[in-house]
Known about the structure:
Layout: E1 12-20, E2 27-38, E3 42-47, E4 51-56, E5 71-75, H1 77-84
Antiparallel strand pairs: 1-2, 1-5, 2-3, 3-4
Amino acid sequence: MKHQDLQIGTPLRVAVYWYDRVCEPPQNVAHESEVVGWRTSQLIVRVPNYGVIRIWKRNGMEVGNPDYQRRGFRVDLSELAESVKPDGQTQDGPGIQIAIDTDA
């Protein structure tokens, strides 16, 4: 996933994966989704052509899915964290290097 800026009024894009380990071969389909809210321990994500689901922040699995080992939705939280990580530059441009005199 490409780099995203965290700004008010812009959706936070996240890849939500539908996995099904029951069928042969196992399926893993990615859906381009967006975070619409959050709670203390959960993300609330809108999946296009499906609905709104809740995802645990601790493991990235779907909330309320008792059959999570076989099939369900999941989010790769490390991928999401990497996409919003600052790139080390300010909005005005690259950082300015300032020489500090240590002979004082």
